[in-house]
Amino acid sequence: MTTADLLPGTVRALDLALARAQATSRLPSVSAGLVRGGRLVWSGTRGTTGIDAPTNGLPGPSTQYRIGSITKTFVAVGVLKAVEDGLVGLEDRIGAHLPEIDALPAGGIGHLTVGQLLGQASGIQAETDGPWWERTPGGDFAALLPLLGPGALRHRPGTRFHYSNVGFAVLGELLGRLRGAAWHEVVRTELLQPLGMTRTTLRPDGEHARGLAVHPWADVVLPEPEHDAGAMAPAGQLWSTVEDLARWSTVVAGTSGLLSPATVAEMRRPQSVDDARNAAWSVGYGLGWQLWNVDGRRHAGHSGSMPGFVAMLRVDVESGDGVLALTNTTTGFGDLPATLLRTLAETEPPLPAPWTPRPVADDVLELVGPWYWGPAALTVRSRADGGFDLGGLAGRGRASRFVRATDGDGWVGLDEYYAGERLRPVRGADGTVSHLDLASFRLTRSPYDPDADVPGGVDGAGWGSGA
After folding, report:
1. What does the domain layout of the chain look like in residue ranges?
2. What is the CATH number of domain 362-444?
3. Sign of CA dihedral 42, 48, 51, 54
4. Cβ-Cβ contacts under 8 Å for 354 (sequence gap 6 or more)
5. What is the pTM of this model?
6. Cα torsion at 342, 37, 287, 406 (round to 10°)?
7. Could you tell me which CATH number the domain at 1-352 has?
8. Would the CA dihedral through 137, 141, 143, 149 be positive or negative?
9. pLDDT tens per residue across span 177-205
10. Which of 1, 41, 11 is nearest to 320 (CA)?
11. 249, 306, 355, 427: least surrounded by Cβ within 10 Å?
C-alpha cells in the first residue's frame, strides 16, 4: 500500500473497501489505486497473484495484470495522434488506408469511417466467427479479412452504439500501417515511452498475476489460458500495472501532453450512447473511450476483461480524480472502482483553487454583463482562458462557451446550441458595441433596443400596457 497526503481516516476507509471487495467478490488478488492532480495518491493490494515470485505472490502497484479492453484506449490515442499529425482523418474511409478491405466482395466495411470505428458506431459484428478468440491463439490480419466482407455489418453505420472487438482489430492494423510498424510497437514508442510506462507490455513480463476462474459454488480456482491473440490483440491483449495506468489516466484527464486540448475534448464527446433500455443514457462511447453519466457528472475511461482478468480505469472529468483497479479473476470486482472514487470524493473533496484577479482583454471586458435576445435576459461572463460564457439569466436561455475565431473574425461557440456558430460584435458610429450578431439573431443591451439593428424592426410606440 502507498499513500500520499491523504488523511488516516481516508486511507482506512479505502483499505476497508478494498478488503471487503476482495472477500465478498472472492478475488484471488486485487490491486487498486487513486489518482489526484496527476499522481497516485493511494494504492492498495489484497490477496495473492497465484504465481510464486520474489514477493511470495503478494501483489504490489508494479504487479502486471492483463487489462483487456483498456488496450483499446491505447490504439485509439495512437490513431488520434496520427490524426493530429495529418496521417489520417476521422472522416476517411477505412478502405482508403487498408486497400485489401476494398478488394473484398461488395457489402464489406470499406466505406466505414475511422471515426465510426473509434466511436463504436460502425455497426460491425462484435466478435469473430471462429472459436472464442479470447481463449485461443489468433492469426494475422489476412486471416481476419474474410470477416470484413459481406455480412460483417449488424447495424446501419452511425445509427447506434454496438461494441465491436473486431472493429478495434481493424483500427490496430490501421495504426500499424500509418506508422510503418506493428501496432504495439507504435504504442510503445509514441505513447508508453513519453509517459515513462515501462511496465505496460504485449505479453506478461516480470512480476505478474496468473489469470484464474473462480468456481461459482466452491472456493476453488482454475487457471485460464494466456496467448497471443494475433490480429485481435488490439482489442484486449496488453498487460499493465496500477502505477503505469495512473500515468495513462492523465491522457483522459487531459494533462498528459500527448494530445491537444481540442483532441481530448473530442475524444470525450459521446459518439454513440447505449440507450436501449433507458430513456436517459448512462453509458456511452467517445473516440476510443467509454463514457459514464453519473448523476450529471461525466466520467471517462474504459473497463477491460479477458478470461482470468478484469480491469477498470475511470476518471471524473470535472475533478480529474481517477481510479484504477485490477484483479485476476474472470468474474470481476463488482462496484469496487466506483466505491473507491466516491470514498475519495466524500472524505477528502479537493479544495477549490483560490480566486485571484486576472487580466481580461479589452474586447472581452466590453462584452461582459447583461444582453437581451428579444425580451429574454442573457449574461456574458469572461473566462480564464480568454473567452467568455453566454448563458441565460437564472439558468434560462440558450448557452454556449465562446473562443476567438482562428481567422480573427469574431468568436466561435464551443458547445450546446451555438456550437460552431459565429458571434460578431457590431459597433455603432461612436465605436462602442451596439449589438451582437449571433447566427442571425441580434443580442442588444436592452430588450428590443430601438437603436439596434433588430430584424423585423421595433414598434415605434415602444413598450406599454398593450391597451
Report:
1. 1-352, 362-444
2. 2.40.128
3. positive
4. none
5. 0.89
6. 130
7. 3.40.710.10
8. positive
9. 999 999 999 999 999 999 999 999 999 99
10. 41
11. 355
